Amino acid sequence: MDGETFDVAVVGAGITGLTAAFHAARRGLRVAVLEAGEAGAGASGRNSGFVIPTLSRVGPDDVARAWGDARAARFNAQLSGAATALFEFIRAEGIVCDARQNGWLQPDRLEPSDGVWQHRLRTQRQAGADARLVERDELHALCGTARYPAALCLTEGGQIDPLAFTRGLAAAFTRLGGTVLNGCRLLAPAAEQTKVLVGLDTSLGMVFARRVIMATNANGHDGARNLTAATLPFALVLAAYDLPVCGADHVLRTHQPFSDVGRDMAFFRRLQGNRLLTGMFPTSTRLSREAIDAELQRRIGHVFGVETTGLTDLWAGRVGVTPRGLPQLLQFGPNVFGWTGCNGRGIALSFVMGHWLADLVADAPIESIPVPLQALKAARAPQLGVWFARRLIAAERRRRERHERRGATPACTVLHYPLD
């Protein structure tokens, strides 16, 4: 590739990068995606597969305070429609990725009469989401668990196989004539070569482009490491289990994924082939496979009352957590753009971010993008922030275990990160 020139070069073949590349190519631009591994090798292929059209730790009022009422209204409206847009895209492009728009559930230990539920419903509806309250009997029928009195349901959410989706997205992009360069590592930050071209020093040679999109989020290395500096490097462990042939039909029978409210979040997705996905935030870098397996088996048994037939897959990803919980649209130079900050809601947000980045490199007015453009600002003391959050998660995990042994059902506590 040494000396090749493109209209747009995208660094990172994940959901954001490939979505941006697809829409830029559909505008008639010559686009190349530079990927250090292969499509989906980063967070896009290493997540829970939940499609959730909202932010995780902030509400519409927080967005309005940060960005202003007008911009926040446009952002919330487009994000709330991102899940439906993604599922429509999957159907239009014929991507096979176990896509199910059945809704996403967020259960809690609070009784349906608790006023917190009405506050949560108002917040989600204010952001444009189609939200309703699911009470115990219906929740048991949908998910097969009686451990929660109620759950918030976002009806436009759902689930996909994220790795299959990302690879299908890569195929859709190449059908438009786009180029995906696997094994192409960015060796140094993108640098302006002339007034119209940006140079990218890669392991496959020097590549030039009129516009560059940095789409590595929290998984960048070498020349893409600067994006990682804007986030707290929070790890997520994921696992898949075989369910027993008999006695597990009630487990997520309607294929509605859920993740509960809390620091030590319990989350589950039913996979094809009578399998179950779950995971946890590790509280130590020294956790063994056996310790992870034991903790996740305990959760499955407590929530669904079944014993699995064994762990089949174990892997890890990295969540791009920003201190304020908001996504960041970044400008590294006159013609170099990027973003970070999925904050655990990466699929729908990454998809819509890809659209906005495609608009930017196609010379759309900056004012038309719902997220404000800003310079990169590194997170302060990121390792300290991660250490503090892990301690809070570990404390809630121990508290949950104590209550489970006594047969009690404690309310969960939402995690707020300490950095501003």
TrEMBL record:
SUPFAM superfamilies linked: FAD/NAD(P)-binding domain
Keyword Transferase applies: no
Superkingdom of origin organism: Bacteria
Residues annotated as domain FAD dependent oxidoreductase: 7-360
Keywords associated with the record: Oxidoreductase
Pfam families on file: DAO
Protein name: FAD-binding oxidoreductase
